UniProtKB/TrEMBL annotation:
Gene3D superfamilies associated with the record: 1.20.1260.10
Protein origin, superkingdom: Bacteria
GO cellular component, one term: cytosol
InterPro entries on file: Aromatic_CoA_ox/epox, Ferritin-like, Ferritin-like_SF, PaaA, PaaA_PaaC
Protein species of origin: Saccharomonospora viridis (strain ATCC 15386 / DSM 43017 / JCM 3036 / CCUG 5913 / NBRC 12207 / NCIMB 9602 / P101)
Name of this protein: Phenylacetate-CoA oxygenase, PaaG subunit
Alphabetical GO biological process terms: phenylacetate catabolic process
Length: 309
C-alpha cells in the first residue's frame, strides 16, 4: 500500500495522523498555519485582559483574572509544542507573528474599555472559542487534538467566570448594568467574526474538512454559537445588538443579521483599533526576554558540557 493510501485509510477510519506518519506536504503546511495562528491568538489574547489585572475591583476578581491570563499563556505553549511536532520551531513562528507574516485572531484587536469587558470576553470570546475548538478535539492530527482536550476544559472555566461576573454586575447598580450592555454591544459582532469568513469565501475550509482537520464549517459553528448564546443573553438580561436576531422554527435556528465583512477584512489587514499596539507589545516582550533565552541556552550548554565531560 502506498504512503498516500495509508494516509487516506487512516483518515477514512477516523484514526489519528501522528508526527512520525507520512503526510502530504499541504496537510503539514495547513496544520502549521492553523496551529500557529491559534497559538499566536492565545499569546496575544493575554494583552486585552492583562490590561485589567492591576485594576480588578476585588482580590477575588484579580486572582481569577490572573489565573485566566496565565492559562492563555499555557495554551500558547501547548500549541507551539504541537506545531513543533510538524518540524517548525517556535522562535521561527514568533518571528512570523511579530513581522506580520502569520495571523492571530481578529478578536484581540479590540480594546477593553471597562471591567465589564473582562466578563463579556469570558462569556462571548471564550464561549465562541469553545464552540470553535471542541470539534478540534477530534481533529485528525493527534498532537493538536490532544492539546485541545485540556485547552477546552480550561476555556469552559474562562467562559463560566466571565458569565458569573456579568451576572453579578447585572444584579448591581444601573451604571454596572449599562457597562455590561455597552461591552456586549462592542464585542458581539467581532465574536461572530472569530469563526472566519463565510464558507463560500473560505479558501481553506473545504480541504480542511476533507482532511478532517476541521470537523464543521465556519458557518455551522457560527450558527451553533448564536443558537447557544441568545438564551444566555436573555437569562443575563442584556440585548444582543442585532435587530434581525429571531428564532426561525423552520430552520430550527436563530436568523441573524449580516456581519460587517468589510470590518473583518480591515482588521485582518492590520487596521483594527489595537493591531499596532498588540504587535508592538509582543515585539517588546520578545526583545526584553532575549536575555532569559540566552541565559537558559548558556546554562543548557554548560550542563550538556558537564554531562559530556
Ligand atoms: N482572525 C484572524 N484571521 C482569520 C480569522 C480571524 N477571526 N478567521 C479567518 N482568518 C484567516 C485564516 O487564518 C486564513 O488566513 P491565512 O490563509 O492567511 O492563514 C483566512 O482568514 C481564511 O480563513 P479560512 O476560514 O479559510 O481559514 P481556516 O480554515 O484556517 O479557518 C479559523 C479560520 C476558523 C480561525 C480556523 O483557523 C480555526 O478554527 N483555528 C483554530 C482555532 C483558533 O485559532 N481560534 C482562535 C480564537 S482565539 C482563542 O482561541 C483564544 C481563547 O483564549 C479565546
Amino acid at each position: 500500500m502506498t504512503l498516500e493510501a495509508q494516509f487516506e485509510r487512516t483518515l477514512a477510519k477516523d484514526q489519528r495522523i501522528e508526527p512520525r506518519d507520512w503526510m502530504p506536504d499541504a496537510y503539514r503546511a495547513t496544520l502549521i498555519r492553523m496551529i500557529a495562528q491559534h497559538a499566536h491568538s492565545e499569546i496575544i489574547g493575554m494583552q486585552p485582559e492583562g490590561n485589567w489585572i492591576t485594576r480588578a475591583p476585588s482580590l477575588r476578581r484579580k486572582a481569577i483574572l490572573l489565573a485566566k491570563v496565565q492559562d492563555e499563556a499555557g495554551h500558547g505553549l501547548y500549541l507551539y509544542s504541537a506545531a513543533e511536532t510538524l518540524g517548525v520551531d517556535r522562535s521561527e513562528l514568533t518571528e512570523k507573528l511579530i513581522s506580520g507574516k502569520q495571523k492571530y485572531s481578529s478578536i484581540f484587536n479590540y480594546p477593553t474599555l471597562t471591567f465589564a469587558d473582562v466578563g463579556v470576553i469570558g462569556w462571548l470570546v471564550d464561549g465562541a472559542a469553545i464552540c470553535n475548538q471542541v470539534p478540534l478535539c477530534r481533529s485528525s492530527y493527534g498532537p493538536y487534538a490532544r492539546a485541545m482536550i485540556r485547552i477546552c476544559k480550561e476555556e469552559s472555566f474562562h467562559q463560566r467566570q466571565g458569565y458569573e461576573l456579568l451576572m453579578t454586575m447585572m444584579r448591581g447598580t444601573e451604571e454596572q448594568r449599562r457597562m455590561v450592555q455597552d461591552a456586549t454591544d462592542r464585542w458581539w459582532w467581532p465574536s461572530l467574526m472569530m469563526f472566519g469568513p463565510p464558507d463560500a469565501e473560505s479558501p481553506h475550509t473545504a480541504q480542511s474538512m476533507a482532511w478532517k482537520i476541521k470537523r464543521h464549517t465556519n458557518d455551522e459553528l457560527r450558527q451553533r454559537f448564536v443558537d447557544m448564546t441568545v438564551p444566555q443573553a436573555e437569562a443575563l438580561g442584556v440585548t444582543l445588538p442585532d435587530p434581525q436576531l429571531k428564532w426561525n422554527p423552520e430552520r430550527g435556528h436563530y436568523d441573524f443579521g449580516e456581519i460587517d465583512w468589510a470590518e473583518f477584512k480591515r482588521v485582518l489587514a492590520g487596521q483594527g483599533p489595537c493591531n499596532a499596539q498588540r504587535l508592538a507589545r509582543r515585539r517588546a516582550a520578545h526583545e526584553n526576554g532575549a536575555w532569559v533565552r540566552e541565559a537558559a541556552a548558556a546554562y543548557a550548554a554548560k550542563q550538556a558540557g558537564r554531562r559530556a565531560a
